[in-house]
Amino acid sequence: MDQMTQEPKDTQDAQAPKSQGRRQLLKGGALGGGALLFGFSLFGCSKKPESDRKEPPSEQAVGQAATAVSNQPPGLAHDAFIRIDREGIVTLIIHKVEMGQGTFTSMPMLLAEELGADLTKVKLEQAPADNTLYADPMLGGQVTGGSTSVRAAWKPLREAGAKVRTVLVQAAADQWKVPVGELKVVAGTIRHDGSNRTMHFGEVVDAASKLTFPATVKLKDAADFTLIGKSLKRLDSPAKVNGSALFGIDARLPNMGIAAVAASPVMGGKVTAVDEQKALAVKGVRQVLRIEGAVAVVADNFWSAKQGLAAAAPRFDDGANAAVSTQSIVADMMKVSQGTGAVAKNEGDALKVLDAAGGRRIDAIYEVPFLAHATMEPMNCTVDLRQDGCDLWVGTQVPALAQGAAAKLTGLPVEKVKVHNFYLGGGFGRRLEVDNVIQAVAFAKLHKGPLKIVWTREEDIQHDMYRPYYVDRMSAKLDEKGMPSAWFHRVTGSSIMARFAPPLVKNGVDPDAVEAAADLQYTIPAVRVEYVRHEPAGLATAFWRGVGPTHNVFVVESFIDELAYAGKSDPVAFRRALLQKSPRTLAVLNVAAEKAGWGKPLKPIAGRKVGRGVSTQFAFGSYMAQVAEVSVGPDGDVQLHRVVCAVDCGQNINPDTIVAQMEGGIVFGAGAALWDQITLDKGRVQQTNFGDYRVMRMNESPTIEVHLVKSGDEPGGIGEPGTAGIAPALANAVFAATGTRIRKLPIGEQLKKA
Prior knowledge:
By secondary structure, the protein is an alpha+beta fold. It folds into three domains: 240 residues, Aldehyde Oxidoreductase, domain 4 (2-Layer Sandwich); 148 residues, 2-Layer Sandwich (Aldehyde Oxidoreductase, domain 4); 333 residues, Aldehyde oxidase/xanthine dehydrogenase, molybdopterin binding domain (Aldehyde Oxidoreductase, domain 4), CATH 3.30.365. Helix content is 29%, strand content 23%. The chain contains 20 helices and 28 strands. Strand 4, helix 3 and strand 5 form a beta-alpha-beta unit. The N terminus is likely disordered.
């Protein structure tokens, strides 16, 4: 099952499901082909439908829509459309995208649990771009990100299933003239044991569509779950294994031109010259296109386009950022980080305690580098721009933002822009951005007919929107018992929220930049957390699989480790003493420590130093602890041998998916922590491909053990926590092995300097 099975194999005919007015969908209604559509306003009041807007939304307007529910009318409008045909097939029009995180299995599980459907007969259709009907209630826009998919859908999708089940059962009871209480629903079948009668959903949808949905429904107790909490096979796996799954890069249209692109190597640079005739002389090349900051060579196939681009040899005026370097950016950040920041948290008087006599003060500066997303599927977008409309074939985490950006650029009404969304070959936050869509549409305006833009790996890495560089100033005071009496943390870095969702930045504090720092889980008498916004010159920043927590968990857990050693305490015992008021964090720490054999000596490895490190965290609504085991060679080479991870993410939906997300997040985060950074020289990103921006290979991957701590709480997020927790566990393990404290990433570079 996948969203592409609903579309023709040749995506030239693919059409996204059409948005329909709320009035048509508040009651079940017959559709062509003998299907019934049930529409639910799952999150409260409605906003004006997108199709009624006179002007396309600006990027800022769409960004403002991506704010928290607290900044919007209670419960932003969000419809889940459930279609049941007369064969009993249930179709969920899903508002989230699948990029490997398992939403195309977990979300149907939520629906099928309460509906009583046969999960193998639940199909999915990708929702069209519509920021009104398909807005995530936690994010306020049609966005897949922030580890929110299951958290936001946990109750609404189950309630939708329960409401549909209620009218189906009522219709069957009316037909059989038996009490509703005598009927059971099992795997898409309604049963009456007293008369030994059964019927499947499809046999009763006509009658059910005439009934009124109940205003409220009673949901199942966890003890009665038949699907939720079970490790079920991923429903999208078969298509991905047999090659039938389609990604944005797979889009094909008749007479489509395929283009390779070269954008200015320096941000803000402009094209000055192109050898157009040399490019056109390459076999298969059709056209050379120029916009202000980039050149595209269009050909019959990508190889010809790439060869033509090389022949075109575009030249650029570097512009104002020609002298920008990593060194200049960091020097500026160090300077501004010394100023007072906006206050994100202030309990007690940490500054006074730090300056007072007595105790032991410890100060440290931590740094984390710019990081690229390096998704396995490079950025791409196919555009069919006509006078009367525009179709986009793309894999995006923000279809409504892509739609709005294309509408603004073309001048078309937003309803004339159709977004055909695909599986994403990796997102990690990169596909929350629409710069590739804007570029593709700009080139399409110069080209007659459909145009596919594909970035090379080099183009992808050197023109990414990067995880911000952060500088963190840390201070703490230890009392006579070696325990912290004051904690100070000043975060300096870019504000992604100020661009993506301005209303979320309040009193100068970017909530993402301080997440996992301002909500410190450790009990310390005096705590102050500040934020200093600083935007670097020469590159753009964006969300990167965890963003704020990926840097804050590293800083907080590394500094806590420093304090533990300074106070002559065992790192786990030190944390336990500070977590007595955070029982769920303490619980995962205890599980991870026990399963890892904390306190027991590691097996020695000839010629290498071995060490074990720990981290805890609360982020994205989930609690986690990790223990890493490493060895370090004489040349500073680090091998990560084993990771033990304990996670409490509330009610598990599909445990196997949770384990897979932890494993994937740990591998993703470990590679970045060990080796990766994006550096600039003369305004140019220096990294180009996986040769100098490493991805952890299979032979380098550690043994990973994931232990799920049972919880009856509502689900937390799982897509990003694993990435955040591994860096400090790794760094702390390296310190235990070598005595070298890692205050700056990547680890490998710091060990070479040690």
